[in-house]
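Friendly challenge for the regulars: who can give me the structure tokens for this chain first? No prize, just bragging rights.
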Amino acid sequence: MALESSARSPRAPGPPNTVRGAAPTPLNLDETDRRIVLELARDARLPNNTLARLAGIAPSTCLGRVRALRERGVIRGYHADVDPAALGRPLQAMIAVRLQSDARGHIRAFVADVATRDEVLNVFFLAGKDDFLLHVAAASTEGLRVFVEDLSSNADVAYTETSLIFEHVRAALAQ
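First reply, four minutes later:
Bragging rights claimed.
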């Protein structure tokens, strides 16, 4: 399982994570839960018996712990890490987006719209000078240019900056 996956999720995008409000409460994972989560992050297709052996617990206990981790929101889903090039989109980029100052009330609508675009793999809501970072994949430079032009034509968008991705290396957690 990739913690941030390049695969499109079949679920509709939910509301963006809020950066305001109370700080999240710690999830108090014990060492066994941490081991389960790390092993699933490395390979979400592990059979329960193998996962239980790696975590040093009985299979029935492992099944219950995985179920509890899903219910608590620690495990948010299982995803295939698909190479966008295999789907005909070999050109990847990160696009920083800054919204107009008077468009703050349109944030959810912007996210709902952009998250449904075929080119968009991930949407990150940021703190700082930029509001969003979009991870996109396109079939060609022409396709990327058309996407950026369309994005920039949105009246709520004040600024975009595109950075091409030469190579993506997964983080150590998921290795």
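The mean pLDDT is 86. The first strand starts at residue 91 and ends at 99. Your move, everyone else.
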